[in-house]
Amino acid sequence: MSSLLRPSVPDVSIFSTSELLLRHRLKLVEDLWESALRSEYGQEAVDLLKKLRSICSPEGQATEIPASAIAQTIEQLELNQAILASRAFALYFQLINIVEQHYEQRDRQLERLASSQDSSDLSQHGSQLDNINTPPAALGVNLLEKSFFNENANAPKAGTFQWLFPYLKQLNVPPQLIQRLLNQLDIRLVFTAHPTEIVRHTIRKKQRRIARILRQLDRAEEAFRAIGLSTSWEAEEAKAQLTEEIRLWWRTDELRQFKPTVLDEVDYALHYFEEVLFEVIPQLSIRLKQALKSAFPRLTAPANDFCRFGSWVGGDRDGNPSVTPEVTWKTACYQRNLVIEKYLQSVRELIVVLSPSLHWSNVSQDLLDSLERDKMQLPEIYEQLAIRFRQEPYRLKLSYIQKRLENTRDRNKRLAIPEERQILFQRFHDNVYRCGDDFLAELRLIQRNLAETRLCCQELDNLICQVEVYGFNLAQLDFRQESSQHSEAIEEIAEYLQILPKPYSQLTEAEKIAWLVQELRTRRPLIPQDMPFSAKTCEAIETLRILRQLQQEFGLDICQTYIISMTHDASDVLEVMLLAKEAGLYDPATGQTTLRICPLFETVDDLRRAPTIMEELFEIPLYRTALAGGHDGIEIPGFPVNLQEVMVGYSDSNKDSGFLSSNWEIHKAQKALQKVARKYGVILRLFHGRGGSVGRGGGPAYAAILAQPSSTINGRIKITEQGEVLASKYSLPELALYNLETLATAVIQSSVLGSGFDDIEPWNAIMEELATCARKAYRALIYEQPDFIDFFLSVTPIPEISQLQISSRPARRKSGQKDLSTLRAIPWVFSWTQSRFLLPAWYGVGTALREFLAREPEENLKLLRYFYLKWPFFKMVISKAEMTLAKVDLQIAHHYVRELSKPEDRERFERLFEQIAQEYHLSCDLILTITEHNRLLDGDPSLQRSVQLRNGTIVPLGFLQVSLLKRLRQYSDRASSNAIYFRYSKEELLRGALLTINGIAAGMRNTG
User: Fold this and answer.
1) pTM score > 0.90 for this model?
2) What is the per-residue burial (b if ≥16 Cβ within 10 Å, else e) of 734-753?
3) Measured distance CA(408)–CA(429) in Å, rounded
4) Pick from 331, 411, 473, 912: most CB atoms within 10 A?
5) How far apart are the C-alpha atoms of 408 and 437, rounded to whole Å?
6) Which residues are catalytic?
């Protein structure tokens, strides 16, 4: 076995106290896990698990034991034994994840405490830059080099506000530059659900219960250590609770019994707002203000809503027929209900807190006048509480507010019922809030009154911040649909009306644009009232109509972005604009629109054409007028003018051309798009469709943002937060806060400091060469090898993944087709992750590096090492590939090939595996050569430890999965040949296979 596959375990002597505590907790949960299984099934079951774990090396890789020995160990297991082992290992991974997350949060809290005590110690950190007086426009390469790569261990941690603002001061960054950036700071995080989120909601709740018990255990042990005792009854009680929780979990079904509906996914995604993010968001604003005031006391902090949230759940209909207009409407009602309930909880708490009496505190006439109006509008509240709160005006005012919130909530619940909707739609009365701004105005009235009497209330300030961020909609719903759906609808409409000389699809692009612009200019309706069209065309029309109705009822902030996936031409955008006009979202008379159409460029060809497409659109006067706020240039509140959103997709571009090529094409496209936007005076907001896994653009967000090309962020960024990573980022308060803070820090840092690296043409030429070579190697395997599709369908669990009840969305955009073009990037990556190839995230990198180094070995190696040290983009790409390669296990992958290949296919599949293995070893060797690491992930010991910790137990799960897949496929083969006798039913075998998929997903900490 290659030495690259056997990283040694780090010496315990170098571990920090926190690391030792983590290992202590890991040992504890492993013991409790064994104890729970022993109590359920006896020592025999525990011995079986230990035997299965012994088939991997201490470093976490599969041992090179003969295939026959593996088969003998696994194949002899009864199905119930295999299922027991699969469930046990899956539970083990989940417990590890909880412990790691808990101590990640603990570390963040300790780091913050330490840095707050010593935040002024920046004398060494960047002291060599004291005399820099470079003007902001020329900060360039030197500055980013020093800011990104120069850290002092005693300084606050990079990626936090406490580190950033003092550091900018050390760099002599002009305050006016920072202020300008803060004034336009706009960070949007969009939650999605369509990735393969594998864990049931029920299990998530059990995870949080265990996390709470771990906190109790920490407090109990720390309290007793402080007085010199080793244990306590509180600690023993916590351990007993942990044991019971693990046993309850063990008896809970991990697999969903039904396919989740879209509203189930809405409930899952919004749960993080309810449990964590609602309370966390004010703390983010407070941290930024405190850090800014410490370093730049004269600067003004950004508005509280500098970081806001969006959601695709319930709005994204790309290939998902379950997302109907009715579902989208109910999603909006669900969101409003959730956030109003949170506000009600806060108002009830404020009624307790804000007890000043008129005997001892004055109030303004404004507040007294508002109380008089409230008395007239809500007399029942006055009669009920006037005596009780006669001298307590704040409590009385808040009681009126509470009643209006309750009325608003009750009206909203009725709006979710179709029969009630038409009665209530756009009908308001004085005793409900029409929007969050009305509620906010009343809270600010109280805040002003308190301030005028030299009082403040942090709970009230927090609530005001929450209302400014979440409004009455919680998150902005983005709509998304695939481009062909609109063009097919337009074709059907035009064909029915007989208004074109030939079918719309046969028009040239220039002819399409000319006709669409002509139709956009006319004020007559295009679509007949009774809509005599196909169901698909009616759905496309109704989607825009429901969007308009949502804006009328919920306000513009509920939804204003419409994303067109697979955008190929400028006409794709104008088609949506025409349908929007028919729905009342674009007015040809004024030239105004309340819809922001966002083209999504996904494939490499589309990314390359993106700048040309946007330039074509900006050249159309009608389109530019709409962007600019209409003929009179009037800005609609909540809808900034001259703002163009463009989305770049990581998943499909990766599937199309491989990891290295995809990242470079996206990097180039961003620079070119920014250049076009600047030429036309348009503000560009780039929307990054990042996935959770590296193969879909995932990875550490801080480094990813710093690696974006200079001048493309400018304080504005929009990023998808995929369903599979929500738990790891937002399940615990301190982790959620840290994630938001590092994102905001990276946006400010990248925008203010900039970089000259991306504009060095010789460097760009080298990257172009590397990307071209990597793409060629990737496509030679994926698209040009005639045996590859058969290989993929045979040696990965892709057929079984499609049967998991994990998403409301189908695995393919179009049913019936079995080629790669229709397969979604999510199951594509998921399949390679399960089989431990992780191929989409690294294949082609080694070949590209080898060919470049072959020409001038010494000089080019020096150059690549310099890139790695100095160029954030190159460092990010290499680091992501290194992380993925560390998770690959070729021994397991080879086992999938050997066992799941049919005899007649084995020879040709072995040739493909050998080709993949050679590229893997080549990639590992060259990345280690460039990074000058001895082992993969030497530069990130904590991640290295985490990967090694999981790898060991994933090995037996991989063997179990292969065994169960093999039995399941044998059953299917026999059933198709009418030889239907088999020892186990298909349902039993499928359940076992799906449990292993569950377990490996938990162990890898990501899916697709």
Assistant:
1) no
2) bbbbbbbbbbbbbbbbbbbb
3) 10
4) 331
5) 13
6) 194, 655
